[in-house]
Design goal:
Layout: E1 9-10, E2 14-18, H1 24-32, H2 50-63, E3 66-74, E4 81-94, E5 99-107, H3 116-131, E6 136-142, H4 146-155, E7 158-168, E8 174-183, H5 187-198
Helix pairs in contact: 3-5
Length: about 200
Amino acid sequence: MPEFEPLSLRGKLVTLEPLSIEHHDGLVEAASDGELWNLWYTSVPRPEAMAAEIQKRLKLQAEGSMLPFTTRLNDPQTGEPGKIIGMTTYCDIDLSVPKVEIGYTWNAASAHGTGTNAESKRLLLTHAFEQMNCEAVVFCTHWMNQQSRAAISRLGAKQDGVLRAHTRMADGSLRDTVVFSILVAEWPQVRNELDRRLNRY
């Protein structure tokens, strides 16, 4: 089983590149686009907490449980990666199955509905299933995050269940976590539907 190592994944719309502390200012600007930290059921860092969030993700990467990415919007003329629009990760990496979760994802409000999230997932799923030989890819989200739940369902992931009072949020409230997954046998049809959707962009 190969290890999950830092790498860049480039599509038509976006490029996912290894998270770096040098991305701090661009990530603050992206999170400020829509003031995403005000959505209480998400964990988007406030500007003053962004540096600590980057360091936390890099620490988990060093421990082998996370592979964090910065999402950049590609220049429509050159195709080269440009403006930072958000973050995403491989997390809860389990090489014994193998399986992985795609999570801790957020994108600037202006990027919503542009196909960038779908292509990010297409890139991550392709690498997980076709290069890392994963048996399953998992997605988790807050019960109250209807936008995220709908987006995960549109990917073709199936809901496995709800973990009640699963974890405590920063505000002290308890989160009910909705768990979805895609199995390797389902990947071809999920990939076909993602490609159909992305052809619109």
